[in-house]
């Protein structure tokens, strides 16, 4: 069962998460917005840790960090404005987005507090990671495999569609070039 | 958080055994020792085995302590400082799941993922250190680190998970216990080498030092002086020390060894790993990230996946106890 | 000197000691001033002249631990930069490194080099470009020895260990063009990039003082991501050879070759080889024939290492190939040199001396290299520049040339 400390931690991290989320739209630099969002995600990861869902918490931190840093590459690198010297607003179409945000927040909050959540049957698992793995890879193995491969295929096809260079550019019209012709060489000859 | 293990025989965490504060202090002390030893070993690798090589890390630290901190024009001070402080903090946190002496500060049911997450957070920290000062070379260094991260991250994850797979546990203490008969390095040589190379890559050291390369005036760390530089450099050394200690737990049987006590063996093996890494890493030229990315994706990712597959098959055949 | 265990700084933030050799011509002394303004305290600046180099170095180190290394009314680098756009404009990239150790005499002079090495005064100069090229003067030799002895005691000062310094950019980034101003800095504008995208560009300059870079050479360009466009490369002032060296051109060219190897190894991220090359160079510039023989042996060894390294070949091969380049000036067709790796291997071959057909490496001027840098990434550009042996620049300084 959760002890009082966990409850306090969850509440505090929840507030931090919301505050950091708000900060995303308040700060005037893309870098700060990105890292405010990361703080928000890390607070959520902390909440999961406080709930003793170790694996989920740690994996959230890991994935969100890498994700934010990839975002840094795309959103900041191509706008070479070191240290965000040029203030910019993080909000577009402020009124409509504020309305949408408040509506969603209200719906979720009402839902969370009014749904009759089932109470725990059985006891806390000795190893939540193992139980999670069993749940995912046991009865839902087929579903997870299909989803996983589907997502992966989506990523690959998205990349293929986005790049303007294909194998014919690299290996010639008949694909016979021994070495690919690239603007900058890679590590494999 | 003591977390009663599946078998009911999981070792107590250091925090549970000693109390939280002493345990944290012990881990911080271990971090300082590992970082200092690595700095010395590294210096010996660069300058040869002279007395002054051993003294160098202390003198340099002292110099940084009394040195003025640098400011630049229009820095993003908040993010810069956050990144600087994060480097050593993450290094110590990563050490929290390394079982020096048979116990970890925390025992979570996902130690390996914890270690991996601390290293991933380092992406953010290093990029911030490069971004903060509002300087071209530092920023280029920060982005180089991300490019390098995209290269080493997947092979590193596969290397880590291979050890977990062989032990059927994500707990480092469980992984050490599983090597009672045979060290994992024997069946997982690829994972071992990739893990050490990745450790050099995420601390941008040796052949992976491009983010702090001489061609960009030491890149991410180019604008750091005084205590800022001390903190970042110490964080890198501790991270490398922690990674060497982790390699011992994952692949070299942890503290197992005859006669001497477990912590002694553990530290000896850790120092040996550090020496090997420093001796090799300081003698090879830089592997430029734009070349290394392609190699990592086309060679290392398949190689580590095959390694994982092989270990998976061994598990199915009951090779590991 | 490496023998003193001094490390060379790669950026001003890392430096404690700024050594200049002789009297600097105006553009370089401005660069040195800028660099100095960016160094954190405690710091010390010392001009080295012909007499008593060792003693001067010791004095410099000792000064670091005295109150004079701190200033009370500090003008922070940031403040200085914003004082004038001029300052910030030029600061971009320079840096240079600080010291190295060496065992031999020469080297001492090197550290100095970094920055400065040019003197107006024709009598003595060391050449040096950054990394220490040529700095040997016989005069120093004796001094140096003194220096060495003293070196023994050096260890006690903790602070000074590293003397290097580098200049670097702080201002750096600052210069951006179009797009308004923030904090007194012009912001980045956008321009089409080499892949046809419209990307932000940043105006940068590298040099004239920068670790692993020919001193006095300045590269100005727009940077998009880390790709350089609109590159211009020129000397803002030259470095004159030491007159002693001029008398023995063969010896001089060997020294320059070994310096070039050391520079290249540094830029290519191979500090181990760079250190070996510096050691070899130190021995080579000794007055003692035995020492020089040893230096030649070491130089050959390090050249072999560099020439044979498969990892280096993998890492830098194919960059900066000047053959069949669309933009190459026709007049230069005759002296195509291949890519970075081939040029460096040629350097090694000349140093080793095992190919009689290769006696020397042709010197080039900035105009021969400029076209290769267009569209190159920053790292590639540094390697390309480091792979050439630049002809000594005209010593004449065009005052306006620096930063137009």
Quote the distance from N terminus to C terminus of chain B: 28 Å
Q: Mind summarizing the main beta sheet of chain B?
A: none
User: What general form of chain A does the structure show?
Assistant: extended
Tell me how many strands of chain A there are: 0
Give the amount of beta strand of chain B, in percent: under 5%
Order of helices and strands of chain A: HHHHHHH
DSSP strand content of chain A: under 5%
Greatest contact between two chains:
B-C, 51 and 67 residues
Main sheet of chain A, how many strands, which sense, barrel? none
> How widely separated are the two ends of chain A?
58 Å
User: Helix/strand/pairing class of chain A, anyone?
Assistant: mainly alpha
Weakly predicted, low-confidence segments of chain A: none
Number of DSSP E strands of chain B: 0
pLDDT below 50 for ≥5 consecutive residues: which ranges of chain B? 1-9
Number of helices of chain A: 7
Question: Mind explaining what this structure looks like?
Answer:
The complex is a heterotrimer of chains A (189), B (321) and C (404). With 189 residues, chain A is mostly helical. Chain A has helices at residues 4-26, 30-50, 54-77, 94-114, 128-137, 141-162, 167-171. Chain A folds into two domains: 1-91; 140-183, no CATH class. In chain A, helix 1 packs antiparallel against helix 2 (30-50) and helix 2 (30-50) runs antiparallel to helix 3. Chain A is extended. The model of chain A has no long low-confidence stretch (mean pLDDT 82). Chain B has one domain (14-316). Helices cover 69% and strands 0% of the residues of chain B. Chain B is built from twelve helices and no strands. Chain B has helices at 14-18, 20-47, 51-66, 77-95, 111-131, 136-167, 172-178, 184-187, 189-202, 226-251, 262-281, 289-316. In chain B, helix 4 (77-95) runs parallel beside helix 10 and helix 7 packs parallel to helix 10 (226-251). Chain C has 14 helices and eight strands. Chain C has helices at residues 26-38, 53-64, 77-83, 85-90, 105-113, 138-153, 243-246, 249-267, 271-284, 289-308, 310-316, 340-352, 366-373, 378-387; strands spanning 17-21, 44-48, 181-182, 185-186, 189-192, 198-206, 217-224, 227-235. In chain C, the strands form three sheets. A four-stranded antiparallel β-sheet of chain C has the order 5-6-7-8. Chain C has a two-stranded parallel ribbon with strand order 1-2. In chain C, strands 3-4 form a two-stranded antiparallel sheet. In chain C, helix 8 packs antiparallel against helix 9 and helix 8 (249-267) packs across helix 12 (340-352). The longest helix of chain C has 20 residues, at 289-308. Chain C is globular and about 55 Å long. The chains are: A mainly alpha (189), B mainly alpha (321), C alpha+beta (404). Chains B and C meet through helix 3 and helix 6 of B and helix 3, helix 8, helix 9, helix 11 and helix 14 of C.
């Amino acid at each position: 069962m959760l002890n009082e400390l966990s409850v306090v931690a969850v509440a505090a991290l929840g507030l931090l998460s919301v505050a950091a989320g708000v900060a995303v739209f308040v700060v005037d630099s893309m870098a700060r917005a990105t890292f405010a969002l990361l703080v928000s995600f890390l607070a959520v990861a902390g909440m999961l840790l406080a709930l003793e869902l170790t694996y989920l918490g740690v994996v959230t931190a890991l994935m969100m960090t890498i994700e934010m840093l990839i975002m840094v590459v795309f959103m900041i690198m191509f706008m070479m404005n070191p240290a965000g010297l040029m203030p910019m607003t993080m909000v577009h179409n402020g009124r409509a987005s504020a309305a949408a945000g408040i509506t969603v927040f209200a719906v979720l909050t009402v839902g969370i507090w009014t749904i009759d959540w089932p109470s725990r049957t059985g006891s806390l698992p000795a190893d939540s990671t193992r139980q999670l793995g069993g749940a995912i890879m046991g009865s839902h193995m087929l579903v997870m495999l299909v989803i996983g491969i589907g997502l992966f295929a989506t990523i690959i096809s998205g990349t293929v569609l986005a790049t303007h260079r294909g194998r014919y550019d690299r290996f010639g019209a008949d694909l016979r070039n021994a070495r690919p012709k690239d603007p900058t060489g890679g590590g494999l000859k | 958080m003591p977390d009663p293990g599946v078998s009911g025989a999981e070792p107590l965490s250091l925090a549970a055994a000693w109390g939280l504060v002493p345990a944290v202090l012990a881990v911080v002390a271990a971090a300082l020792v590992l970082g200092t030893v690595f700095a010395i070993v590294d210096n010996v690798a660069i300058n040869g085995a002279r007395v002054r090589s051993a003294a160098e890390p202390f003198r340099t630290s002292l110099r940084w302590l009394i040195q003025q901190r640098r400011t630049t024009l229009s820095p993003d001070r908040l993010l810069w400082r956050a990144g600087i402080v994060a480097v050593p903090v993450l290094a110590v946190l990563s050490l929290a799941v390394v079982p020096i002496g048979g116990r970890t500060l925390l025992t979570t049911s996902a130690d390996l993922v914890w270690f991996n997450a601390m290293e991933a957070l380092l992406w953010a920290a290093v990029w911030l250190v490069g971004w903060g000062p509002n300087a071209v070379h530092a920023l280029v260094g920060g982005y180089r680190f991300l490019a390098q991260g995209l290269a080493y991250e997947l092979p590193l994850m596969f290397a880590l998970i291979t050890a977990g797979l062989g032990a059927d546990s994500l707990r480092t203490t469980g992984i050490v216990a599983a090597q009672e008969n045979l060290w994992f390095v024997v069946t997982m040589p690829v994972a071992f080498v990739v893990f050490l190379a990745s450790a050099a890559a995420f601390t941008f050291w040796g052949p992976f030092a491009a983010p702090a390369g001489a061609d960009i005036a030491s890149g991410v760390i180019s604008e750091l002086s005084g205590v800022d530089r001390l903190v970042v450099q110490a964080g890198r050394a501790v991270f490398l020390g922690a990674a060497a200690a982790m390699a011992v737990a994952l692949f070299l049987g942890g503290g197992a060894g005859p006669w001497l006590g477990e912590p002694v063996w553990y530290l000896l093996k850790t120092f040996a790993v550090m020496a090997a890494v420093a001796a090799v890493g300081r003698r090879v030229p830089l592997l430029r990230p734009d070349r290394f990315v392609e190699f990592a994706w086309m060679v290392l990712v398949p190689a580590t996946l095959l390694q994982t597959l092989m270990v998976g098959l061994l598990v199915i055949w009951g090779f590991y106890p | 000197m490496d023998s003193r265990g001094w490390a060379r700084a790669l950026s001003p933030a890392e430096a404690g000691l700024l050594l200049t050799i002789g009297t600097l011509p105006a553009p370089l002394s401005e660069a040195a001033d800028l660099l100095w303004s960016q160094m954190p305290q405690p710091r010390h600046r010392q001009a080295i002249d012909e007499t008593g180099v060792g003693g001067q170095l010791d004095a410099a180190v000792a000064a670091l631990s005295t109150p004079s290394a701190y200033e009370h009314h500090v003008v922070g680098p940031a403040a200085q930069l914003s004082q004038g756009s001029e300052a910030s404009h030029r600061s971009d990239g320079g840096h240079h490194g600080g010291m190295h150790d060496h065992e031999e005499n020469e080297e001492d002079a090197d550290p100095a080099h970094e920055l400065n090495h040019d003197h107006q005064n024709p009598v003595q100069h060391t050449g040096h470009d950054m990394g220490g090229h040529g700095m040997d003067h016989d005069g120093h030799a004796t001094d140096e020895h003194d220096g060495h002895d003293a070196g023994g005691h050096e260890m006690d000062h903790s602070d000074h260990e590293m003397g290097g310094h580098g200049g670097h950019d702080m201002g750096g980034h600052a210069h951006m063009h179009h797009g308004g101003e923030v904090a007194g800095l012009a912001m980045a504008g956008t321009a089409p990039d080499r892949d046809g995208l419209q990307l932000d560009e940043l105006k940068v300059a590298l040099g004239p003082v920068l670790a692993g870079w020919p001193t006095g050479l300045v590269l100005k360009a727009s940077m998009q991501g880390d790709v350089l466009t609109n590159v211009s490369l020129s000397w803002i002032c030259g470095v004159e050879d030491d007159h002693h060296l001029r008398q023995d051109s063969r010896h001089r060219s060997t020294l320059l070759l070994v310096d070039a190897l050391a520079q290249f190894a540094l830029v290519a991220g191979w500090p181990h080889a760079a250190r070996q090359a510096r050691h070899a160079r130190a021995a080579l510039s000794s007055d003692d024939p035995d020492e020089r023989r040893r230096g030649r042996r070491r130089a050959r060894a390090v050249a072999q290492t560099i020439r044979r390294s498969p990892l280096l070949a993998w890492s830098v091969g194919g960059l900066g190939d000047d053959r069949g380049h669309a933009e190459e000036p026709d007049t230069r067709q005759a002296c195509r040199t291949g890519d970075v790796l081939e040029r460096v291997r040629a350097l090694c071959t000349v140093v080793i001396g095992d190919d009689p057909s290769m006696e020397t490496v042709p010197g080039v001027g900035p105009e021969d290299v400029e076209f290769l840098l267009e569209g190159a990434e920053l790292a590639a550009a540094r390697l390309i520049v480091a792979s050439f042996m630049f002809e000594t620049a005209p010593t004449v300084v065009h005052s306006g040339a620096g930063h137009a």
